[in-house]
UniProtKB/TrEMBL annotation:
Main EC class the enzyme belongs to: ligase
Role, per record: Plays an important role in the de novo pathway of purine nucleotide biosynthesis.
Pfam families: Adenylsucc_synt
Pathway membership: Purine metabolism; AMP biosynthesis via de novo pathway; AMP from IMP: step 1/2
GO BP field: purine nucleotide biosynthetic process
GO MF, any single term: GTP binding
EC number, UniProt record: 6.3.4.4
This protein's name: Adenylosuccinate synthetase
Catalytic activity: IMP + L-aspartate + GTP = N(6)-(1,2-dicarboxyethyl)-AMP + GDP + phosphate + 2 H(+)
Domain of life assignment: Archaea
Species annotation: Halorubrum pallidum
Keywords: GTP-binding, Ligase, Magnesium, Metal-binding, Nucleotide-binding, Purine biosynthesis
Membrane spanning stretches: none
Length: 88
């Protein structure tokens, strides 16, 4: 089954919260557009993760994909990946 969450407005509409809620059982979480200008906070196992580029499902071990519509800031991406690796 495929579940797609799309926002029709600019800015913070709560898309990240919906992905966090509904994406818990997903095999893959794909971010298809956007950049690192908006962050999202995920709490998993009592640990808080602050992300702005990496898809939120990654904190649960879900495969995260950044699509070709994403604007990737390499510094942000590698900082977030390093932080996730340090936390296990």
């Amino acid at each position: 089954m495929t579940l797609t969450i799309v926002g029709s407005q600019l800015g913070d509409e709560g898309k990240g919260a919906l992905v966090d809620r509904w994406g818990g059982d997903a095999d893959v979480v794909v971010r298809y557009q956007g950049g690192d200008n908006a962050g999202h906070t995920v709490v998993e196992g009592g640990t808080e993760y602050k992300l702005s580029l990496v898809p939120s499902g990654a904190v649960r071990g879900t495969v995260g994909i950044l699509g070709n519509g994403c604007v990737v800031n390499p510094r942000t991406l590698f900082t977030e990946i390093d932080d996730l690796r340090e936390r296990g």
